[in-house]
Amino acid sequence: MSLPTPHDEDGPAEVLLPQEMLAQFSTVNVCAPMVRYSKLAFRQLVSQYETHITTTPMMLAKEFSRSAIARDSDFSTNSLERGTFYMDEIRRAAPVVELDDSYEPRGILETPRRRKRKVRGSLIVQFAANDGQQLADAAELVKPWVDGIDLNCGCPQKWAYQEGIGCALLRKPELVRDLVRSTKQRVGWDFPVSVKIRVDPDLTLTNELVRTAIAAGADVLTVHGRTRHQASSAHPVNLDSLAFAVECAKGDIPCMANGDVFTLEDAEETRRRCNVRGVMSARGLLANPALFAGHSQTPLSAISEFTRLSTSLGLIYPLFHRHVSYMLESHLPRKRDRTYFNSLSSHAGVMDYLEEEMGLELKSGGKATGLETPLTTLSL
User: Fold this and answer.
1) Structural domain boundaries in the chain
2) Pfam families under this entry (predicted)?
3) How far is CA 190 from the centre of its chain?
4) How far is CA 231 from the centre of its chain?
5) What gap in Å lies between CA 61 and CA 135, rounded to an integer?
6) What's the mean pLDDT when you consider all of the chain?
7) What string of DSSP letters covers 343-358?
8) What ranges in the chain are assigned the alpha helix state H?
9) Exposed/middle/buried for 365, CB within 10 Å: 0-12, 13-18, 19+?
10) Least C-beta-crowded within 10 Å: which of 26, 143, 194, 258?
């Protein structure tokens, strides 16, 4: 499904802050930060299928702020990756006075009224940090290229916890406060800073963390409905705990929900149960980048587009191969077919398979779509 460019016959798209999108529209779809996987080619693909906000993989603020090599390796963007969308705005109609049989006013009803607005998508960079100056340095470097940064307080990996980042921050609300404030003071209070957390087994600690992050100046809260000890593969998301964390925000800032969103129906159920407008998906989008557009499996046209983007943007083969393998899972019900595809060892082998076995007519890579912009000029 192709989308209009930011400047077509309808005029330019609105450019909104992420928190403005979440406050003004009924449905906001988000690509989660994924280690290795949510790089430019994949972000640009999902933005063609109703994914309104995309997030980079988690990057270490310490390394990003001090190493030009790390910046060039970890982050690139281009002029078209965000996409353009026609989004449903929630508005309130004029109050309607309801009369009973005595013609006395019985109450005032307000009926939601929607209209579509043309909006440019948003790009968020996620950082892991435990030092305010390092996070502020990284945010200052990346600020011209993105629409906000996100502080990772949810990575459950053992190495991250031992380094004092990710989930290690869940029970350190004062440190989270200092990280948010230091960044805001450096880059400006109008530059969006969001915080992504997991729920705590002790929900009183979740409440404390949420209220502290908001008081520090966080603009958006994202909640993953698992604890740091619960693996996604073994534990279903706890929507009740997730909803509790959202309630802790008391409507002071917009919230997004994350966990077990594999279909459009999952997204709508999460919105309803957790009372949020923003829903984030990770594994669901890996398997089906078009899930937010209502597709039940990855369209073959999306796989064709991904091969073009990967070739033009220089995505390394191991990542390209894994992405396509995820996208093909629903198309390859036989184990032997999946095993054969996983054994392919080159771009040419994958391309031949897609053309000969899947019937794809692959587009030529050509030049990169838009101007790819690595951060080589931002070395310290």
Assistant:
1) 7-90+113-293, 300-378
2) Dus (PF01207)
3) 20
4) 20
5) 5
6) 90
7) T--SHHHHHHHHHHTS
8) 18-24, 40-46, 61-66, 68-74, 132-142, 158-162, 173-187, 203-216, 239-248, 264-274, 283-287, 300-313, 317-328, 335-342, 347-356
9) middle
10) 26
269-325 pLDDT tens trace: 999 999 999 999 999 999 999 999 999 999 999 999 999 999 999 999 999 999 999
Q: Going by C-beta distance under 8 Å and a sequence separation of 6 or more, which residues neighbour residue 365?
A: 308, 311, 312
What tokens appear for 219 in the block? 């603009």
What would the pLDDT profile of 218-230 be if each residue is shown by its tens digit?
999 999 999 999 9
259 burial level (CB within 10 Å; 0-12, 13-18, 19+): buried
Average pLDDT of the segment spanning 42-69: 97
What Rg, from alpha-carbon coordinates, does the chain have? 22
Beta bridge partners of 125: 149
Q: Which CATH class is domain 7-90+113-293?
A: alpha beta
Cβ atoms within 10 Å of 312's Cβ, excluding its own: 20
Backbone φ, ψ for residue 171 (5° rounding): -110, 25
CA–CA distance, 323 with 97 (Å, rounded to integer)? 55
What interhelical angle do 300-313 and 347-356 show, nearest 10?
160
Active-site residue set: 155
Q: At what angle do helices 203-216 and 239-248 cross, to 10 degrees?
A: 40
Residue 197's φ and ψ, nearest 5 degrees, are -125, 170
Q: Which of 30, 375, 374 is nearest to 194 (CA)?
A: 30
Cα end-to-end distance, the chain, whole Å = 41
326 in helix, strand or coil? helix
Integer angstrom CA distances of residue 358 from 71, 249, 331, 362? 37, 48, 9, 11
Question: In whole angstroms, what separates CA 265 from the centre of its chain?
Answer: 18
Contacts of 342 (CB under 8 A, 6+ apart): 325
Polymer length in residues for the chain: 380
**What whole-number distance in Å separates Cα of residue 159 and Cα of residue 164?**
9
Q: How far is CA 212 from CA 116, 177, 192, 250, 270, in A?
A: 35, 6, 17, 13, 25
